[in-house]
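User: Sequence recovery, please. Input:
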């Protein structure tokens, strides 16, 4: 990683071991044209493939990882895969690795990216946690695949839609309350008669129940910070950010 951190990237503020490298992109620093301006990293949203490829090269040059990230075909599920087995995008919503050099990566534009590492710095993982994946157990599945005592894990919550912007229906609230009645505290009535959901709070509660108490991040709002982030809720035709973690 370069000594001077690029201003258009977010570097997690968490006490991860020095060999654990992690970043989250913003919408800045690339070459894509509106509505994908400018650092769109997704191939599936209608952007020019040449621009996406150039954006990915720019990211690699700015950050300095050694191998192509383990890109996923995210389906809002709970499948977790070893990043070392990925040769082309596969249907999964989380990846882990113990090998150095190749990043685990998830792409988002309102959904929650969750990064995990162990305190010894021997293993890392990234999970894509939209509300369906979160309710379905993608975080638990990822922690389970890491095979590390949860008390030895650190978690960082990357840019996602904030609790004052994530309006959902009763079915979403009911799904989470069915999992844990105390999840009701993460919902408040919206002016439209629906619910405002705190996806960060829901993720923190799940991590705590799993035994992961060292949780950081969660201070962003992709919907509200339009100059900084892509947001599918704000503009359905838009780009995707990437959140990556790897062992250096």
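Assistant: Recovered sequence (248 residues):
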């Amino acid at each position: 990683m370069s000594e001077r951190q690029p201003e258009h990237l977010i570097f997690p503020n968490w006490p991860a071991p020095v060999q654990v490298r992690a970043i989250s992109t913003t919408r800045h620093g690339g070459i894509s044209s509106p509505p994908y301006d400018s650092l769109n990293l997704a191939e599936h949203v209608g952007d020019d493939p040449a621009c996406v490829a150039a954006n990915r090269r720019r990211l690699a040059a700015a950050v300095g990882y050694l191998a192509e990230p383990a890109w996923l075909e995210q389906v809002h599920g709970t499948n977790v895969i070893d990043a070392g087995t990925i040769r082309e995008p596969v249907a999964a919503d989380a990846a882990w690795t113990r090998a150095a050099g190749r990043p685990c990566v998830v792409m988002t534009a309102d959904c929650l990216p969750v990064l995990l590492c162990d305190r010894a710095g021997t293993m890392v993982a990234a999970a894509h946690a939209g509300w369906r994946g979160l309710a379905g157990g993608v975080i638990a599945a990822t922690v389970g695949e890491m095979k590390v005592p949860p008390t030895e894990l650190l978690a960082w919550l990357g840019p996602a839609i904030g609790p004052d912007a994530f309006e959902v229906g009763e079915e979403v609230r009911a799904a989470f309350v069915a999992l844990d009645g105390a999840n009701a505290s993460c919902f408040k009535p919206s002016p439209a008669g629906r619910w405002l959901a705190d996806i960060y709070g829901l993720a923190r509660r799940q991590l705590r129940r799993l035994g992961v108490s060292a949780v950081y991040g969660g201070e962003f709002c992709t919907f509200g910070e339009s100059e900084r982030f892509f947001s599918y809720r704000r503009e359905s035709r838009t780009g995707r950010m990437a959140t990556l973690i790897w062992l250096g």
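The mean pLDDT is 96.
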